[in-house]
Design goal:
By secondary structure, this protein is of the alpha/beta class. The chain folds into two domains: 102 residues, Aspartate Aminotransferase, domain 1, CATH 3.90.1150.10; 226 residues, Type I PLP-dependent aspartate aminotransferase-like (Major domain) (Aspartate Aminotransferase, domain 2, 3-Layer(aba) Sandwich), CATH 3.40.640.10. The chain is built from 13 helices and 14 strands. The strands form three sheets. It has an eight-stranded mixed β-sheet, sandwiched between helices. A four-stranded antiparallel β-sheet has the order 10-11-14-13, covered by helices on one side. Helix 11 runs parallel beside helix 13. The longest helix is centred in the C-terminal third of the chain and has 17 residues. The two termini are 38 Å apart. Pyridoxal-5'-phosphate (PLP) binds next to helix 3.
Length: 343
């Protein structure tokens, strides 16, 4: 596989997953013909929406350029301007997307915390009308999974209060593969769900929002006002449609994440999460390295990752990393640990 990365192992994100030959051919074939002019006119975009509805068990869906766009437009469509947002304190919406949401809708934000399936809603219980947000898998918590039963139980608590439920499912595909529950079973307890086509699945770009027809129309309208609608959409839609046949392949990324995590955990000096999906969080605390220092050392040694919070680095496994690379990745960690101990 050709690579232009400056790293031997580029684990900064699963958006780096390369397109398969099938996906590249689908994109090339679409690019050879002109796209349609208006939203929902293009047959490939229609086919993609249809397939997303089928997979997620929803009645309507729309293509968005990014998952951030799908999340923000979806929350505005659910009424973020008038209703409180109940958000988990470590979720992507809270930690990364809030500035955009705030600029568009100045929502009242209430946060809750979530450990595994257990929810602490104490700070939010007085809220009569709200949009309750979930993330699955959970990026900052290391790709952790909510299965269908947990999602149901959590969504039920929100529904009992008359709240709407929104799911940031940027990596819902990983949650499905890891839990064995279908994407529809994971999405059915929520009103609106976003998914990415470019995280792990290997489309160059694209995301979707799925829910009921009225909310999807309103989300698209909100996004159109900002000039964010993709048109012609056929090239983007073709890549997204093609990756949906490959969801189960994400299991290989999960297996590689587990193998690499287990190999690094055997080394002295590191604390390593036991990955549920494709994300591994590693701390070099015991070597006296904070997240930024460990990330810089790994980068110099040829392994790209991100510093995650003050203590950790995040490694995200994807199809661009070969299945036999766990020992070589662990060796990079081993060399850094012995250098630190010798210093
Ligand atoms: C959980 C989660 N939601 C949303 C996003 C935003 O996705 P995008 O980069 O497509 O805007 C990300 C990006 O990594 C993410 O991890």
């Amino acid at each position: 596989m050709d690579t232009i990365s400056k790293f031997d192992f580029d684990l900064r994100s699963d958006i780096l997953a390369p397109a398969s030959d099938i996906v590249a051919s689908a994109i090339a074939a679409a690019a050879r013909r002109p796209g349609e002019f208006l939203w929902r006119e293009d047959p490939i975009e229609r086919a993609l929406e249809h397939r997303v509805c089928e997979i997620l068990g929803k009645s309507a869906a729309a293509l968005f350029p990014t998952c951030t766009a799908a999340n923000i437009a979806g929350l505005v469509a659910l009424g973020a301007r008038e209703r409180a947002l109940v958000l988990e304190d470590m979720c992507h919406l809270m930690t990364v997307e809030m500035a955009g949401l705030d600029w568009l809708s100045s929502p009242q934000v209430l946060s809750y915390s979530q450990q595994g399936g257990a929810l602490d809603l104490t700070k939010c219980l007085g809220q009569s009308d709200a949009i309750f947000c979930l993330e699955n898998t959970h990026n900052r918590r290391g790709g952790t999974v909510l299965n269908a039963q947990q999602t149901n139980a959590i969504a039920q608590q929100a529904k009992e209060r008359g709240w709407s439920v929104f799911l940031d499912g940027s990596r819902l595909w990983n949650a499905s593969v890891a839990s064995g529950d279908s994407p529809a079973a994971l999405a059915s307890p929520v009103d609106l769900v976003s998914v990415s086509f470019n995280k792990g699945l290997g489309a160059p770009n694209g995301a979707a929002l799925a829910g009921d027809e009225r909310t999807i129309k309103s989300a698209v309208e909100a996004w159109r006002l900002l000039g964010g609608i993709c048109r012609p959409s056929h090239v983007l839609a073709a890549g997204a449609l093609a990756v949906l046949d490959d969801i189960s392949l994400l299991g290989k990324d999960h297996a590689l994440a587990q193998e690499a995590a287990a190999a690094v955990a055997l080394l002295p000096g590191y604390s390593v999460t036991n990955p549920q999906t494709n994300i591994v969080l590693i701390s070099g605390d015991k070597l006296g390295l904070d997240g930024a220092e460990l990330c810089a050392s790994l980068g110099r040694a040829g392994l790209g990752c991100l510093a995650f919070g003050p203590r950790h680095v995040r490694l995200v496994f994807h199809r661009g990393i070969s299945a036999d690379s766990a020992p070589m990745i662990a060796d990079i960690f081993r060399k850094i640990a012995s250098r630190e101990r010798d210093d």
